[in-house]
Design goal:
The chain is of the alpha/beta class. It has 14 helices and 19 strands. Helix content is about 35%, strand content about 15%.
């Protein structure tokens, strides 16, 4: 018998109504569940909503721009002024400051290492009187919009684990990055652009050999549609954005419809969330063929705005260009933008390459804050500047060879700054000791920092979880306290 005719003969009014009730019950249950499967999206272009119980409270910020400075910027040379380093310059670091502390293998035993004063003078700026080095003159102009956290501390002493710890809450790769958590929980407000975008840059002629690993913006055990989308500095901003030669938009649309139909069939049978990811990413890629060229076209930017970001703003792949792109992205509803710049690893280049790093990043970072503020976007955008650790207040190298001066990795106290997004402006929170070696007041751990970021976007870090291998995971693991004293 024809299976369609057989189905029609066997179907009864009772069966039909029973199936309808089951469907309605399932829909109602999905609405009541506080679970991981209540994401919803029209594959053809509506925004993707997040979990049903988010935001947990009123959000102060809609988006976050994280200017991550790979390599460990030297806090004692830029933001954390220590007059005692001038007095003790060239003298061995006192044992009581470093006893029992672990440093990288390049330092080994810190005993006998010579203290090194800041390589450039510091001055106070703004109504807040914040101390800033002459290395960062543009950041000095925005100190009254910034909250300096001078008591950051972490656990890792090497780059990749330390960066992973800041961005995913774990030193080991495999956990979701903070942007993935935000996209998973809060959804995407723009159907035509990714909710989580990453851009990378490195100063020219740097000797730094750091690598941008994909797990810095990976989705870990979350479905892969929540991972960061990397915008490239050359060619198409996103791989395969352009259609192949000879393929029209209409042909491409028809091909995607056919592929989606096949994937939908497989999804119904396999229930594999990665198939759903494949469907949504195909559709996002198609829409980005229109949205990304418009996004990256800077012809509508006035010259005075371009000037805010500095002379490299029109050069793709630079930190300046990426900062301007970050503003354009959050303006269009992107939830999280990760602007990563490598080259801060001054083991032997403190008096040479540090100047280049500051020149390449200082004006664009300050320009981004100014630009957001004059557009009325700073209040709803959380801006962050910082690296994975600081640099040692003592010298790496020899005192009589100034061109080769350097500082090693330093996790025990360093500086990060935040602006906008409900953070108190014009304040300094926490303090390091008189040599900048250890935290002396109001310590801020990595998980505290992460909890505060989530809080500003309306997320309770203890409630945003995902069950994996029988355990509920979260960004802050089982730690983290909101830094309430810095909240406006």
């Amino acid at each position: 018998m024809n299976p369609i005719n057989e189905h029609e003969q066997l179907s009864t009014r009772r069966n039909f109504l029973g199936n309808c009730v089951t469907g309605l019950g399932t829909a109602a249950l999905a609405g009541l569940l506080n679970g991981e499967s209540v994401h919803a999206a029209d594959k053809r272009g509506t925004r993707e909503i997040g979990l049903s119980d988010l935001p947990h409270h009123i959000a102060k910020a809609k988006s976050v721009i994280y200017m991550f400075q790979n390599g460990g910027p030297t806090h004692v040379d830029m933001f954390d002024y220590k007059p005692m380093l001038h007095k003790l310059h060239g003298k061995p670091v006192p044992d009581e400051y470093v006893q029992g502390k672990r440093f990288s293998t390049m330092t080994g035993d810190p005993g006998g290492k010579l203290l090194l004063e800041p390589i450039e003078p510091f001055k106070q700026y703004g109504n807040s009187g914040a101390w800033v080095s002459d290395l960062m003159p543009y950041t000095a102009e925005i100190v009254d919009d910034v909250c300096f956290i001078k008591s950051m501390h972490t656990e890792a002493v090497n780059h990749a684990p330390a960066i992973s710890f800041f961005l995913s809450g774990s030193e080991m790769p495999g956990r979701p990055a903070i942007g993935s958590w935000l996209t998973y929980g809060l959804g995407n407000d723009n159907a035509d652009l990714p909710s989580y975008v990453v851009m990378t840059s490195v100063s020219k002629n740097t000797t730094c050999g750091q690598i941008f690993y994909d797990f810095y913006w990976g989705s870990g055990f979350l479905p892969s549609r929540f991972q960061g989308v990397k915008f490239r500095g050359g060619g198409d901003p996103v791989l395969y954005l352009s259609n192949p030669d000879g393929m029209s938009k209409e042909v491409r649309r028809g091909m995607l419809d056919d592929i989606a139909a096949l994937n939908e069939m497989k999804l119904r049978s396999a229930r594999d969330p990665e198939i759903d990811t494949r469907i949504s990413q195909y559709e996002m890629a198609f829409r980005m063929q229109t949205s990304v060229p418009e996004l990256t076209d800077l012809s509508d930017e006035p010259q005075h705005i371009l000037d805010l970001y500095g002379p490299q703003v029109n050069e793709r792949g630079t930190f300046a260009h990426n900062c301007l792109m970050a503003r354009r992205l959050v303006e269009r509803g992107t939830r999280c933008v990760q602007v990563m710049h490598a080259g801060w690893d001054q083991h032997r280049s403190l008096t040479t390459e540090l100047y280049t790093q500051c020149k390449d990043t200082d004006q664009p970072a300050a320009g981004l804050v100014k630009d957001l503020k004059q557009r009325g976007l700073l209040d709803e955008t959380l801006v962050i500047w910082g690296g994975e650790f600081g640099r040692t207040p003592f010298l790496q190298g020899t005192m009589d060879n100034r061109p080769q001066w350097g500082r090693d990795h330093h996790p025990y106290a360093f500086t990060t700054w935040m602006a906008g997004g409900g953070i108190k402006p014009g304040i300094t929170y926490g303090a390091s000791d008189d040599l900048g070696i250890d935290v002396a007041k109001n310590p801020v751990h990595v998980h505290d920092f992460q909890a505060t970021i989530l809080n500003q976007l309306g997320v309770d870090h203890e409630r945003l979880t995902y069950q994996f291998q029988g355990r509920n995971y979260r960004l802050t693991d089982v730690h983290g306290h909101i830094i309430k004293d810095i909240l406006a």
